[in-house]
């Protein structure tokens, strides 16, 4: 078996995490790769930079699929802290729930979480698209800089706190908005953009008019002299 | 960092496997902290014989035989001592405060690591895997166990700095995180007469909860008071002879995962600590929400 170009199945009960990640990083690697028995391992399929189709059968630990470039990675299970953190391109799909800081600082690609994402989903996101099938926890899109976050359920406290840019679409309720995050009008281009995001994430039937758009009020961009007495 | 684990068994057929399951959970969390470790086991018939109370003792500077003679003579009642690693488990069918005082009288300066009915607390400095072997943890039985792997931040790497902190009768606390105002709160408790064994931040939390419960608070109320008084980061696992509770601070930057089946409830810092539990593939898995207290209790505890 050629683990470089053939479709390959790795089993973490018989291979080490280092061996599996090294095989996924090999120059010229291609094809479909399946990983069995992840058992909550950390940094699984992190740092991949190839057009691979990777399927992980089970729950993963911290930083799974981190820094992904080009690969389409499916996690058939739950993900621990920081799934797809700093992703550059490609896609990551989690069939279960994700722990905190999903998609943190990610620059590009598409992250889909079919279940719920915990606190700080999309923290400091820099261009990634994130679609969450369920709800997100508190301080999601904290200091978000670019990209789009779609939440088909509810959002927790302080959504979009200290947001720079990033368009956030939420279908359900928002417990509270963070500093400088505000609801905005859904213009035709937003309905179109949201419909495209939902379709690419596998939710084409959603009615975009059920969503509210949130974004930056742009009041924190500049120092307001009226606040000088506070310092 | 630090790792915490806890297992509350619902199915009595699993009681003989408590030690084996807890060992697997504890050792899987060794990468989160490898300078010290500790466990509390509820219901092991060797470590805490039925019909007795047990006091867990460290740093007594006496052999088990010498401790048996000295405490038995002091009390006028025969006590038994089991050695598990560096911990000595002193048991006798008497009032727990009497037994504790007798041990402190004959071994002044020793560390009382835990006390109560059905409770054994074993802890020490060293690698979690080595300590679990020294304790003989794999062979332990019981209905509930908690464990901690420590990466020290707030106090020295000493037995007194290890978790669990079991400072109330049958109570036990393990903590992942750090309290930032522990010095202030320690001084306030000291003014009320509470004595401390270490400079550790978690000990302050444990003594705060014990003090609240001594005044009649439920576990839930005591943990709620802690969340109002303490600054810092925490995932806490608070156990009692008949209960098991998990709480995370409002920011929730310290991890936790809970799994439940008909046979057991388990919590750990990370999912990978749970992978050897029977039926984990079909367990209900969830991350506890911030500032929400999750508690379970045993229905069939034998009368005290």
Automatic annotation (TrEMBL), chain A:
<protein>
    <submittedName>
        <fullName>N-methylglutamate synthase subunit B</fullName>
    </submittedName>
</protein>
<dbReference type="InterPro" id="IPR012061">
    <property type="entry name" value="Glu_synth_lsu_3"/>
</dbReference>
<dbReference type="GO" id="GO:0016491">
    <property type="term" value="F:oxidoreductase activity"/>
</dbReference>
<dbReference type="InterPro" id="IPR036485">
    <property type="entry name" value="Glu_synth_asu_C_sf"/>
</dbReference>
Automatic annotation (TrEMBL), chain B:
<dbReference type="GO" id="GO:0004360">
    <property type="term" value="F:glutamine-fructose-6-phosphate transaminase (isomerizing) activity"/>
</dbReference>
<dbReference type="Pfam" id="PF13522">
    <property type="entry name" value="GATase_6"/>
</dbReference>
<protein>
    <recommendedName>
        <fullName>glutamine--fructose-6-phosphate transaminase (isomerizing)</fullName>
        <ecNumber>2.6.1.16</ecNumber>
    </recommendedName>
</protein>
<dbReference type="InterPro" id="IPR029055">
    <property type="entry name" value="Ntn_hydrolases_N"/>
</dbReference>
<keyword id="KW-0808">Transferase</keyword>
<keyword id="KW-0315">Glutamine amidotransferase</keyword>
<feature type="domain" description="Glutamine amidotransferase type-2">
    <location>
        <begin position="2"/>
        <end position="299"/>
    </location>
</feature>
<dbReference type="InterPro" id="IPR017932">
    <property type="entry name" value="GATase_2_dom"/>
</dbReference>
């Amino acid at each position: 078996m050629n683990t470089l170009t053939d479709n390959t199945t790795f089993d973490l009960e018989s291979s080490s995490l280092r061996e599996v990640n090294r095989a996924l990083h090999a120059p010229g690697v291609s094809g479909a790769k399946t990983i069995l028995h992840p058992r909550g391992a950390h940094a699984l399929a992190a740092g991949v930079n190839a057009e691979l189709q990777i399927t992980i059968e089970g729950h993963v630990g911290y930083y799974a699929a981190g820094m992904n470039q080009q690969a389409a990675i499916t996690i058939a299970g739950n993900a621990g802290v920081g799934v797809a953190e700093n992703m550059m391109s490609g896609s990551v799909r989690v069939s279960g729930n994700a722990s905190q800081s999903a998609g943190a600082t990610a620059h590009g690609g598409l992250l889909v979480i079919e279940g719920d994402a915990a606190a700080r989903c999309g923290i400091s996101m820099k261009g990634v698209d994130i679609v969450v099938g369920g709800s997100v926890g508190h301080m999601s899109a904290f200091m978000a800089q670019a990209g789009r976050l779609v939440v088909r359920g509810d959002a927790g406290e302080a959504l979009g706190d200290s947001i720079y840019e990033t368009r956030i679409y939420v279908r359900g309720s928002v417990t509270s908005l963070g500093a400088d995050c505000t609801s905005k009008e859904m213009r035709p281009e937003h309905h179109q953009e949201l419909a495209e995001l939902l379709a690419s994430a596998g939710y084409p039937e959603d009615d975009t008019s059920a969503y509210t758009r949130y974004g930056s009020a742009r009041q924190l961009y500049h120092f307001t002299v009226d606040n000088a007495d506070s310092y | 960092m630090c790792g915490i684990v806890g297992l509350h068994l619902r199915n009595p057929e699993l009681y003989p496997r408590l030690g084996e399951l807890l060992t697997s959970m504890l050792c899987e969390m060794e990468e989160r902290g490898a300078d010290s470790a500790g466990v509390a086991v509820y219901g092991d018939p060797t470590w805490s014989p039925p019909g007795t109370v047990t006091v867990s003792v460290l740093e007594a500077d006496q052999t088990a035989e010498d401790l048996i003679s000295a405490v038995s003579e002091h009390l006028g009642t025969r006590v038994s001592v089991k050695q598990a690693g560096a911990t000595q488990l002193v048991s006798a069918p008497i009032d727990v405060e009497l037994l504790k005082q007798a041990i402190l009288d004959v071994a002044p300066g020793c560390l009382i690591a835990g006390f109560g009915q059905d409770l054994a607390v074993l802890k020490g400095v060293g690698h979690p895997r080595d300590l679990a072997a020294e304790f003989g943890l794999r062979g332990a039985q019981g209905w509930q166990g908690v464990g901690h792997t420590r990466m020290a931040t707030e106090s020295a790497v000493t037995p007194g700095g290890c978790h669990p902190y079991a400072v109330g009768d049958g109570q036990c606390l393990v903590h992942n995180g750090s309290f930032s105002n522990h010095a202030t709160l320690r001084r306030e408790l000291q003014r009320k007469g509470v004595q401390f064994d270490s400079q550790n931040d978690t000990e302050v939390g444990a003594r705060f909860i014990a003090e609240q419960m001594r005044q009649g608070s439920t576990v839930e109320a005591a943990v709620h008071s802690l969340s109002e008084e303490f600054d810092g980061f925490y995932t806490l696992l608070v156990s009692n002879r008949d209960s098991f509770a998990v709480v995370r601070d409002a920011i929730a930057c310290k991890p936790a995962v809970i799994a439940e089946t008909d046979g057991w409830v388990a919590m750990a810092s990370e999912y990978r600590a749970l992978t050897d539990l029977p039926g984990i593939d079909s367990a209900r898995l969830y991350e506890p929400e911030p500032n929400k207290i999750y508690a379970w209790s045993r229905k069939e505890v034998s009368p005290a």
